[in-house]
Write a structure and sequence with these properties.
mainly alpha, 118 residues, elongated, 3 helices
Length: 118
Amino acid sequence: MNHNEKMDDTQKSILIGVAVAFLVGIATFFFASDEAKNKTKATVNRQKAKYYVSDKFNNKSAKNLVDKLSDDEVNKLLGTADKVHDLEDKFSDMTADLKDFMHDKKKDAKKAYKKAKK
């Protein structure tokens, strides 16, 4: 083996080592990145749940219960809260529509009464 072949083997080994280290680094980044995203999302959801419970129940004990819930339970609580909010919005819209309908019928009844009176 001459000196140039030995140098080529050393360079190949270094390049392979750098490539493996790079791939391990990329894999670690993606794994850590996903875990960091999940942890951040769980923390944000927990704070949202605390705010929701505090707003709806105005009770410190209920708010402290959120800390005892698992991340999955917090997600379910927030999902239920979103559904309740959607129902409240729909009910509010239906109530407004009913109020408008009744107001229109009242006007129609007054007109009909005035017309019948003449």
